[in-house]
Design goal:
Strand order of the largest sheet: 2-1-3
Largest sheet: 3 strands, antiparallel
Strand content: 5-15%
Oligomer: single chain
Distance between the termini: 23 Å
Shape: elongated
Radius of gyration: 19 Å
């Protein structure tokens, strides 16, 4: 009985500690890679593009340049208990 209770408790704990969010993976012109929020968090594509350029400037010593983003529906699962 105790074993079933702890198994159910563990499954419920994993369920509640899972984080799922939409985001993108990006790569700046100077080679820095990371993950951030996706375009759905912005009013329009222009604001999203400006945000990506700000990331580029922050990671590449204030220089603007080409920044690639490779996925607009990334999902991350965090099973921290």
């Amino acid at each position: 009985m105790k074993r079933k209770f702890f198994c159910v408790l563990a499954v419920v704990g994993i369920f509640f500690s899972t984080e799922v969010f939409a985001g993108i993976y990006f790569k700046t012109w100077c080679g820095v890679e990371g993950m951030t929020v996706g375009p759905e968090c912005f009013k329009n594509g222009y604001d999203f593009g400006e945000y990506l350029q700000e990331l580029n400037e922050a990671y590449c010593d204030g220089q603007r340049g080409k920044i690639d983003w490779v996925s607009d529906r990334a999902v991350e699962l965090d099973f921290s208990l």
